[in-house]
Write a structure and sequence with these properties.
By secondary structure, the chain is α+β, with helices and mostly antiparallel strands. The chain has three domains: 8-43 and 55-77 and 113-290, Thrombin, subunit H (Beta Barrel); 300-403, Roll (Pdz3 Domain); 423-518, Pdz3 Domain. 17% of the residues lie in helices and 31% in strands. It contains twelve helices and 29 strands. Strands 23, 24, 25, 26, 27, 28 and 29 form a seven-stranded antiparallel beta sheet that branches. A six-stranded antiparallel barrel has the order 2-3-4-7-6-5.
């Protein structure tokens, strides 16, 4: 993966996770006794040659179990300076600072000003006693912190139920609510592993707050990734219309079973353009089951940072692209470190399963029981070997965030850049790292490597996202501390017939990353 993510991936993730605020419900049961809906649709729903298909009967059965989700929360309003405050203070110095600011504290310095914020989305009932599934981003607090103040579930017959948040999981973007009721209509989980591209699906939800809305389409793709990382970056893609408000709603197969939870869309406008994304039931159901039991979902954990072998990295390693992932960082003391994994290892199989873009290491490990020992096949220095790893339990998001770091400033005039005589390679001006340059680049004092002092904007290195201030730690997995070593490693790669070189790069206090830079034309 490039050091700088492509615009497509960044855009897809930003739109997907920010645009949708709604959803639908799962395969259902109706009736006075809450009888479960039949697993098999009536034969009349089966497509017949030359005859149009109607989803009317199936929609009528499913709609009562799909609900609207409405949330409310008081959020603080940022104080705004009052242009007249200083003027009045000149005449009455007893006026406290902020007393006249409309966004400041109320007279007497009590509580800050707040406003009411909310969201609308979708959900579905999965039990006759009122358990409801929806997306976590609908019920989390402002800025992704905490939870909202109130959640209301509204059924198709316009009944409103106050809802209690039973549990929520940010990693999978799933949440479980509970409303008080008996013999409620509900839906059942389906088997998303049997879904095929081209299968008909129904989506039901609350787009733009309009209430129960049914759309239909087909499965456009399976195992669709939009971020390239994580155990849950594995969506069902559909061309059924998914809009703002559909988040949390169900995707049904023609048997009326939930095979996905509509959670995101990719769109240049914010409205549906035929690329909707649903969390597969195979991933969602175990999380929902854990939340209903009041437990935090358990996921396998390796404790390594990974990058896919894309068209930039693979040639530098002499390996086929999309066949494995390279270890770019290792958590000290983690399961991977204890098993002997090293930075630069390429993981090609996990427990006998090949590592591919559709089946990532994160996905395979996350779905491995905690504590189980599994073989991991790696390529190290061109040789294949197998390590035995005891899978750990994934830490909480807060714990993982504490292990990460943020970006830093790049060296520049006025930031303590020391005068150097740079040497050039790959379209980069390079200098040996000095304490002054390390401070300017926000790097730890003990860091060693070669710093990039300038980048040719027309170079392949620039296209791959390398920036001024980046630190090159190794070239083709050989540590470098001087520009001469970088130049020698690049020359050696050219003489050996390689078309690219593998750089290990660090930016500020952020994580290290591998970057493959083309050398075939230079």
């Amino acid at each position: 993966m490039r050091l700088k993510e492509s615009g497509k991936v960044r855009y897809a993730y930003g739109v997907a996770m920010a645009l949708l605020l709604g959803g639908t419900a799962f395969s259902l049961a109706t009736g006075e006794a809450g009888a479960q809906v039949a697993q098999n649709a009536p034969s009349a729903l089966a497509p017949r040659p030359g005859a149009p298909m109607s989803f009317a009967d199936l929609s009528a059965r499913l709609l009562p179990a799909v609900v609207n989700i409405s949330t409310k929360q008081r959020v603080p309003v940022r104080a705004q300076a009052d242009p007249f405050e200083e003027f009045f203070r000149r005449f009455d110095p007893t006026i406290p600072q902020g007393r006249c600011a409309p966004g400041g504290q109320a007279p007497g310095g009590t509580s800050p000003r707040t406003r009411e914020a909310g969201s609308v989305g979708s959900g579905f009932i999965i039990s006759p006693d009122g358990y409801v599934v929806t997306n976590n981003h609908l019920v989390q607090g402002a800025g992704g912190q905490g939870t909202v103040d109130t959640v209301t579930v509204i059924t198709t017959d316009r009944k409103e139920y106050p809802a209690r948040i039973v549990g929520r999981d940010a990693s999978s973007d799933l949440a479980v609510l509970k409303i008080e009721g008996r013999n409620l209509p509900y839906v059942n989980w389906g088997d998303s592993t049997r879904a095929r591209v081209g299968d008909w699906v129904l989506a039901i939800g609350n787009p733009y707050g309009l209430g129960g809305t049914v759309t239909s389409g087909i499965i456009s793709a399976l195992h669709r990734g939009i971020t390239g990382v994580g155990a849950y970056d594995r969506y069902i893609q559909t061309d059924a219309a998914i809009n703002m408000g559909n988040s949390g709603g169900p995707m049904f197969d023609l048997n009326g079973n939930v095979i996905g939870i509509n959670s995101a869309l990719i769109s240049p406008t914010g409205a549906s353009v035929g690329i909707g994304l649903s969390i597969p039931a195979e991933l969602a159901k175990p999380v929902v089951d854990s939340l209903m039991r009041g437990q935090r979902p358990q996921r396998g954990y390796l404790g390594v940072g990974l990058q896919a072998l894309d068209e930039d990295l693979a040639p530098s390693l002499g390996l086929p692209k999309d066949n494995g992932e390279i270890v770019r960082s290792i958590v000290p003391g983690g399961p991977g470190a204890r098993a002997g994994l090293q930075q630069g290892d390429v993981i090609v199989r996990v427990n006998g399963q090949p590592v591919t873009p559709d089946q990532t290491v994160s996905y395979l490990i996350a779905n491995t029981p905690v504590g189980r020992r599994v073989p991991i096949d790696i390529i190290r220095g061109g040789r294949r070997q197998t390590l035995q790893v005891a899978v750990g339990e994934r830490p909480t998001d807060e714990q993982l965030a504490a292990l990460g770091g943020g970006g830093g400033a790049t060296p520049g005039p006025g930031n303590g850049e020391a005068p150097v005589a740079p040497q050039r390679a790959l379209g980069l001006s390079l200098a040996q790292l000095t304490p002054e340059l390390a401070r300017a680049a926000n790097l730890p004092p003990a860091t060693q490597g070669v710093i990039v002092t300038a980048v040719d904007p027309n170079s392949d290195a620039a296209d791959d996202g390398i920036q001024r201030g980046d630190l090159i730690l190794s070239v083709n997995q050989q540590q470098v501390t001087t520009p001469a070593q970088v130049i020698a490693s690049v020359d050696a790669a050219r003489r050996s017939g390689r078309t690219s070189v593998l750089l290990l790069v660090k930016r500020g206090t952020g994580p290290e990353a591998f970057v493959g830079v083309d050398i075939s034309g230079r």
